[in-house]
Design a protein that fits this description.
By secondary structure, this protein is mainly alpha-helical. The protein is built from 17 helices and 8 strands. The strands form 3 sheets. Strands 1-3-4 form a 3-stranded mixed sheet. Strands 2-6-5 form a 3-stranded antiparallel sheet, with helices on one face. The longest helix has about 35 residues. The structure holds flavin-adenine dinucleotide.
Length: about 575
C-alpha cells in the first residue's frame, strides 16, 4: 500500500503554483500577458516548457520504479491542473510526453521502458501518433503500415500530431497484418535519431486555440522502428485503449485548471467594475453565474481527482469512468466559460485589456479538450456500451478509496486496467451511500433533498432505458447519445457527491463544507425553487472564490483557508 492522501494532491498543486507565481502580474513566462503574446505570434512557449523541465515536472511523468517521481495519478492530475491554470498551450505542449510514454510504461517491454524513461528525465519530448488525415477516429482503418515477419520498418503518414516536430521519439500505431482486424495493429517505437532521413515533418497546422502548440504531422518512408512492438505484436489497439484510460482521466484535470482561470478573471472583473453606482458582483445574474460556475469548477475538481484515484483503487472500472470524465469535464468547463463570458461582457471578446486578453484565449483553448484523445462522441459511445451495467441494481463492485481523498491508495497496477468491464459501481449505489453518510455532515440540510432528486433521476433513466446494442458508430442514434450523456452526467454528479460524503469531514485539507456540492447539484438538476439553505451555500462559495482571487492562490476543494501567496 502506497501513500495516497489529499495532502499529496494538494501538495502537487501548491508546490508548482508557488514556483510559477501569479499569472495576473508581470510578463514572465508564466503570466497571461506572455501566454497571449505567444498565442498571437503562434510561437511555442519554449521558455515556460524549459522552466517546467528545470523544476523537474518530467520526473512526475515517470514511474518511481523507473527512476521518476510518479507515485499517484492524483498528484500528477494536480500538477497538470496547476500548469493549465497558467496556459493550456503549455500544459498540452509539455504534458503530451505523458501520452507518448504511457503506453510504454503500462506495457511489458522492460528495456524500452528504461530507455524511454531516461529520455523523459533528460527533458526530451515524446509524442503519440495515432491519427491519420483519412481515418480520424476510425483506428481500425489505420493505413500506416509495418508488415513482414518481424516488422522493423514503417511507412505512412500521421497527421495532427502534437509535438510531431519537437519530439525525439514517437509511439506510432501501425497496421502489422495486411487484413487488419482487432489483432492486426501494433504500437511501434520510432527513435527519430535512428530514423534520420527516413521521415518528413509536415508543416505546423494553424489552429483555432493553443495557437503556439506544435500540431503537425510526420510521414515515414520505410523508417526503422523498434523490433518488439509496445504491448506485443498485434497488441496495438489494446495498449492504446488501456493508455486512454489514464490519459483521458488526466485531460479532465487540465480542463479544471483552465476553468479555474476563467473564473478568476471573471470574478476579479465583477468585483472591480462599477456600474450604476455598484459593482457587477451586485447584479443578481452576475452574482448567481459566478456562484454556479465556482461550484461547477470545484465539483469538476472533485470528479477529476476521484477519477485519477480510480486508476489506483478500482482500475477494472476505469474504462467506464475515464469516458465519463473525458466527456463530462471538458463540456462542463466549456459551458462554464460561456457563462462567465456573459459576466465579462465585451471584455471576454478583447485580445488585450482585462487580464491581458487571456479570457478569449481560454475560450478558444478549452474547445480542443473535448476533441483529442477520443472525442466527446467516442467517449459517449463507451458510456452507451456500459448503460445497462451502470444503471443495474444492486451494484456489487466497489470504488474502494477513490472518493475518500484522504485515504491511502494502492500502487497503480496497469495489469488491472481492463477492456471488459465485469461490474460497475453505478451512480445509484454512490448516491445511496452518500445519503446514508450525509446525516451528520455539514451542509446536509441543503444537500440531502438534492441527493434524493439525483437518485430519482437515475432511477427514471433506468426505467426509461432499453439496452443499447452498439456494434459500430452507426448504432449511435440520437436516442443512444442522449441516454449516454444523461448517464454520464448523473454518474459524474454521483461521484462528486461521493467525494463530499467520504472526504469532507474525515480528510484534513479538504473543504469541510458541502456548500459547493449543493450549488453544483442545484445547477445540474435545474433546481429553480428558492431555498434559504441554498442561498447560504451560494454566499459561502462566492466568499471563498473572492478570497482565492484576492490572494492569487488556487481556488480548490483541497484547501483549508490558510493558503496565501505573498506575490
Ligand atoms: C490540436 C490537436 C491535437 C491533436 N493531437 C493528436 C496527437 O497528439 N496524436 C494523435 O494521434 N492525434 C491527435 N489529434 C487528432 C485527434 O485525436 C482527432 O482529431 C480526433 O481523434 C478526431 O478525429 P477527426 O477530427 O478526424 O474526426 P473524425 O473521426 O473524422 O470524426 C468526424 C465525425 O464522426 C463522428 N464520430 C467519429 N467516431 C464516432 C463514434 N465512434 N461514434 C459516433 N460518432 C463518431 C465525430 O463526432 C464527428 O462528427 C489532435 C487533433 C487536434 C485538433
Amino acid at each position: 500500500v502506497s501513500l495516497g492522501t489529499v495532502t499529496r494532491a494538494r501538495r502537487g498543486l501548491l508546490w508548482l503554483d508557488e514556483r510559477l507565481g501569479n499569472p495576473m502580474r508581470g510578463d514572465g513566462p508564466f503570466t497571461f500577458r506572455r501566454a497571449v503574446a505567444l498565442d498571437e505570434s503562434e510561437e511555442f512557449p519554449a521558455e515556460a516548457a524549459s522552466e517546467l523541465d528545470r523544476l523537474g515536472l518530467p520526473r512526475y511523468y515517470v514511474p518511481v520504479s523507473l527512476g521518476g517521481e510518479l507515485r499517484g495519478f492524483d498528484e500528477l492530475a494536480s500538477l497538470l491542473r496547476a500548469v493549465a491554470r497558467y496556459d493550456l498551450t503549455v500544459a498540452i505542449g509539455h504534458g503530451k510526453t505523458l501520452l507518448g510514454t504511457q503506453p510504454i510504461f503500462i506495457a511489458d517491454d522492460d528495456s524500452l521502458k528504461v530507455r524511454v524513461a531516461g529520455r523523459v528525465l533528460a527533458g526530451e519530448a515524446i509524442a503519440l501518433a495515432l491519427t491519420e488525415r483519412e481515418n480520424g477516429s476510425d483506428l481500425l482503418a489505420t493505413a500506416t503500415a509495418a508488415v513482414g515477419q518481424a516488422p522493423t520498418r514503417i511507412s505512412g503518414e500521421k497527421w495532427l500530431i502534437n509535438n510531431a516536430r519537437r519530439c525525439t521519439g514517437l509511439s506510432v500505431l501501425a497496421r502489422t497484418r495486411p487484413t487488419g482486424g482487432p489483432r492486426g495493429f501494433s504500437l511501434l517505437w520510432v527513435n527519430k535519431g535512428e530514423a534520420e532521413g527516413a521521415f518528413d515533418l509536415l508543416p505546423k497546422s494553424r489552429t483555432h486555440g493553443i495557437r503556439g502548440a506544435d500540431i503537425s504531422g510526420i510521414r515515414f518512408r520505410d523508417a526503422p522502428c523498434s523490433a518488439s512492438p509496445i504491448g506485443g505484436e498485434g497488441g496495438g489497439l489494446e495498449v492504446v485503449l488501456r493508455t486512454f484510460m489514464v490519459t483521458r482521466t488526466l485531460v479532465a484535470s487540465a480542463a479544471v485548471g483552465a476553468g479555474e482561470s476563467a473564473l478568476r478573471i471573471a470574478v476579479i472583473f465583477a468585483r472591480s467594475r462599477t456600474l450604476y453606482g455598484r459593482t457587477v458582483l451586485d447584479i443578481p445574474h452576475a452574482h448567481d453565474a459566478l456562484c454556479s460556475a465556482g461550484a461547477a469548477v470545484l465539483a469538476c475538481e472533485a470528479i477529476a481527482l476521484a477519477g485519477a484515484r480510480i486508476l489506483h483503487a478500482a482500475p477494472e472500472q476505469a474504462l467506464f469512468w475515464s469516458a465519463v470524465l473525458k466527456f463530462y469535464i471538458p463540456v462542463t468547463i466549456e459551458a462554464v466559460v460561456r457563462e462567465l463570458a456573459v459576466v465579462l461582457g465585451a471584455r471576454h471578446y478583447l485580445r488585450d485589456d482585462h487580464a491581458a486578453g487571456m479570457f478569449q484565449k481560454i475560450v478558444r483553448d478549452v474547445a480542443i479538450l473535448s476533441v483529442f484523445d477520443g472525442s466527446t462522441m467516442v467517449n459517449l459511445s463507451t458510456v452507451a456500451r456500459h448503460l445497462a451495467a451502470a444503471l443495474a441494481t444492486p451494484s456489487v463492485a466497489s470504488l474502494g478509496a477513490s472518493a475518500a481523498l484522504g485515504e491511502p491508495l494502492p500502487a497503480f497496477d496497469p495489469g488491472r486496467l481492463s477492456l471488459v468491464t465485469r461490474s460497475l459501481t453505478g451512480p445509484a449505489a454512490l448516491v445511496r451511500k452518500s445519503l446514508a453518510h450525509s446525516r451528520e455532515l455539514p451542509s446536509a440540510e441543503a444537500v440531502r433533498p438534492l441527493l434524493e432528486r439525483l437518485l430519482a433521476r437515475i432511477e427514471h433513466l433506468r426505467a426509461a432505458e432499453g439496452v443499447v446494442a452498439l456494434r459500430s458508430a452507426f448504432d449511435m442514434t440520437s436516442g443512444a447519445t442522449a441516454a449516454a450523456a444523461d448517464c454520464a452526467r448523473l454518474a459524474a454528479a454521483a461521484l462528486a457527491a461521493a467525494v463530499w460524503s467520504e472526504s469532507c469531514e474525515t480528510s484534513r485539507g479538504v473543504r469541510p463544507s458541502g456548500d459547493w456540492l449543493a450549488v453544483f447539484l442545484a445547477r445540474e438538476l435545474g433546481e429553480t425553487e428558492p431555498a434559504l439553505a441554498l442561498d447560504a451555500c451560494r454566499v459561502s462559495v462566492l466568499t471563498s472564490l473572492l478570497r482565492a482571487a484576492e490572494s492569487g492562490s488556487p481556488f480548490s476543494l483541497c484547501e483549508d483557508g490558510t493558503t496565501r501567496r505573498a506575490s
